Amino acid sequence: MSGKRRKNQLELAFLDAGRSEAPKASEEGTEPLAAERGTESPARDQRWMERVCERENCKRALARVKANKGAAGVDGMTVGELPEHLKQHWPEIRAQLLSGTYKPQPVRRVEIPKPGGGMRKLGIPTVLDRLIQQAVMQVLQSEWEPEFSSHSYGFRPRRSAHQAVEAAQGYLAEGRTWVVDVDLEKFFDRVNHDRLMAKLAARVGDKRLLKLIRRMLTAGVLENGLVSPIEEGTPQGGPLSPLLSNIVLDELDRELERRGLRFVRYADDCNVYARSRRAAQRVMEGVKRFVTKKLKLKVNEAKSAVGRPWARKFLGFSFTNEREPRRRLAPQAIERFKRRVRELTGRTRGVSVERMASELRQYLHGWLGYFGKCETPTVLQSLGEWTRRRLRSMIWKQWKRGRRRFAELLKGGVSRRLAAQTAGSAHGPWRLANSPALAIALPNAYFDSLGIPRLTSS
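Given the sequence above, the corresponding structure tokens read:
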């Protein structure tokens, strides 16, 4: 039996398991769905957990967890081991979920570098808890998503950061050339559990699901061998946290809409656009009061400011100061690009040109998929030229000695005179990387043959 067929059978076994154990209508918390009764509102529906455990919902959740892959949690179980575990234990897990007794395990603390410096703390749930969080998220999302603000773009289906940037660009074109750039300080770490649970309880009538979500929020964090309790925040790293963050910040969206403001929000990054500095400053003060007093959160004073959009960044982009503003790369995005390319092309890495090209190709494809949307092609062209010069410099260093350099230049089609002159030059690798000899020996076509994409079509 093929491995793929066996995996499919394991998944079907998990999904079918427990079907015969469906609760009877007389059991507590298992009344017919509101749609079946035709009288009770969705907010009072007490069968949310049945929807979480429903076959198709779990099937979608498992597919998503497998697609996302990710590291193991505190129990060490990998995504590949999950189907077999479900085959053996799903009836018991399902029964615990339906009875309201399931207890998530603590999350595993990991730290990753932030693009702008510093470290971001993530909490990695076990793969089983990721599956359950995903199943819960799908049910909650079906209820909340249709009612979220049209100005919210983060962590939502069929919405993207590019759409958020384009919306901001549209406000600039209308003459709203002052921006209130609001950044929430450690937002995911400071979400108030009681306020969040109150918002969920206003719609979710199933106490089992509410108890499960509360337990997910307070499961604790394993760090340096010790489990620390969590009293506030929604740990980043699980499938449920992004949706919960949108539920919390939907209140901010509604307040901004009530005031008739033009804004764009992506997760905890919110920009409001105004026609004058004075109006923008009034908005900033109002937003600070609302965030502090109503949401019980804190505005990051160091990162938040009133300014011109072309002097600020939003999701890695900025804008030109023109009547018809164009998207351009923010200076910070350019610096991050160069820093990463330097890391991938470092002389001390001790890898072959082919290996280096493979890693660089992967990075550039991903980078272009996002930043290729900028509307200043000369900047992309300049970065492409800089990247190829960086590669020529690295290869020149790898050739090391004058005799080999001379031979490699000859092999690349350089004349003996120019090859001898270049190989014996006292200039450094970066300067020589821009020399006629290396342009001949290592032309753009050579890097094309390695599969390294050009940042522009030219």
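The first helix runs from residue 3 to 16. Try to locate this feature in the token string yourself.
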